[in-house]
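Review box. Two proteins, two foldings.
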Amino acid sequence: EIRVDTAPKSDECYFKRYNCNYREVMDNVKTYGNYLDMVIDDKDSLHNASLQPIYTMLVACREGTKAKFFVSKSAERTGKGLRHKVISSPFITKDVLLDNLGKGGFEALNAWAQLDGGEFLLATEQGDITGKAMERALKVIATEDTHQARQTGGNLNNINLTGVLSIDSNAKILLDEGMNSRAVNIAFRNRPANEKDSEREQIFSEYWEAFTIQTATSTSRTAKISAGVASLVHSFLYWKSENFKFNFKLVEMNNLLDNSMLDDVQERILEIYTQGNPIIYFEHFPDIVPLLAETYQGAGKKDKRNKALEFIGFRQVNKTVLKNDGSGYTSKKAFVIRNKKRLQQISTAYLENKIRDNEL
């Protein structure tokens, strides 16, 4: 609950205390809500983003079980950085280099040591979020309270790993489907392709002024604590409207920022699919087989092909179908839908990119 001008009782104490003005905080709650409406891409992402601050706070004060990590994604300069400045400000925040966590030896042990005691673990400007080593590190951060680490010049020891991870990436995010129970995705809305820097700066200036301040101790603007508390109040009120439940939504990220990211097979499959073919039989499209051989060559070619298909939401199967003469069944090679949400996201982006490229 929210109490105003109420001192703690004799059997109560604060977990945190912030020196900020109540009226300024409450005014910023509405501004912060407007900001999320502007920068978040879809209603499920907005739902997840709205719940993140209160989830993090409940874990920080040991009133909630840590089981999730958050991933924000879009193209560049869409507002992810400003939101992370704001929502991390009420917490003890530690910066994370995800690539180092998955390495071996002292470098990894030292990277883990940097997370000790953090409440908000912030990984900004990350590269591709994919691969088994990355997934192992993410599972540990999402679920474990301790992890072995070693500070420079120190002994091997367990650190306090109780913070909630939040990732900011412009690159590819492709995790195994088994990670869906851990990853909470938040898709940000890409800015219009023809938007000028001056136009973007004018649109965002209202929020930079409301949420941040220039200080003598930092070269970049710092989040006002009143804005951080406002994001927490906004999150609490939304959580309350959800009957105090964390029913996070499954969001597929847009990994296809440009069609040049596609190889020849991926592009051909999307071309066929968007022409109204949900199942793509090899025998109906004779160019498929030579295209597969040409695109995926050398060692590990099967793994390369499977990962490429997974990226666009497809998989290759031997599909059992009835023979044309009805005399029995036969097996035919085909591409079939593996991940419907991902395919919808990718195919929509593919068509939009084609239209944009034709207009240029």
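Next protein.
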Amino acid sequence: MPINHFTAFYPSRPFWAGSPVNFDDQSYEGWLTKQMVEEVFSQHTDAYTIKVCRDGRIMLRIEALEKDQGSEVNSGIEGTVRRWGEYLDYLNAFYLLLDSSTIEIAHLSYFNLHEITNRDAFRVKYEDGKSMGENIAIESIASVFQMGRYASNYPTGIPIQYDSHLTMRRVISIDVIEHAANRFALVVASTGLEKTLASYAKSLSEYKVGNYETSVILSWFITEAAASHLWRTHVNGLNRDIDAGRKRINRERRDYLTGRDFPISLVSNLLELWDVLPYSLFQDIDAVRGFRNKIVHGEEFAPGANEAQLAMKTAQAMIDRLWGLRFTPSMGYSVTGL
């Protein structure tokens, strides 16, 4: 019988996927568990599989990461850490797209997006298509949702359907989940996009708790890397044969054009002058670069919400320009009153 493994997580704000549990019929054994664990959405390709259960569990399997598990480069603790990091990039990317799809399709800003870490995620073992075991994320709220699949973990004396962990849930439609999954297909097909979206999710998470400085820096990393990629692509596009055996841009010239003598300020200016970047986006890049420099060089500068929002908006525009991926981040805060 085939054995497969998935890496799973729960959003910190629980939801019903597709429809809620039917609490009217509690006459059969395991009635709650059978409904909670039901896979209401699944998308499978040769590269990945996504499963979403009714209780909001999201499971992901990336074939390339699973095949690399036994390789020499991924052996030992360093290999385990590397694979966890790679899986977390994909999980955070999907969470960002699910949050975006909920806004765009359901017109609902529901998820309190946060960075998923290895404390929140857990591994699930499938055998012959059935879940046969999992780790418990004991350091995360995810453990509450994992145990919430079983009626025995609810207090006696009141009907289960009135427990606060269940009454607070909203239904997220299958259309929303499918929309996020379809966008995720582009992520898996685009090398490096998962890391970029994970960085964006981290920047957004930091913004939501008021860590504007960290948010600006993380968003700037995305913008700088994207501008550098556009520059290298543009330089390569200018190359051509000069005569037999010689190129207009040889290796030495390419190293010069993409090296330290061409800082990002010069690169962004040239990209705008050659109409690779629109002028408005160039202005935003230049402004965010200024924020970054003030932070790094220890100037008396404290970025606020406006600076962080511009940094994230610019990073988002560069993601769209480089990969053609558009999404709608939720800019609500994740703080409570003091």
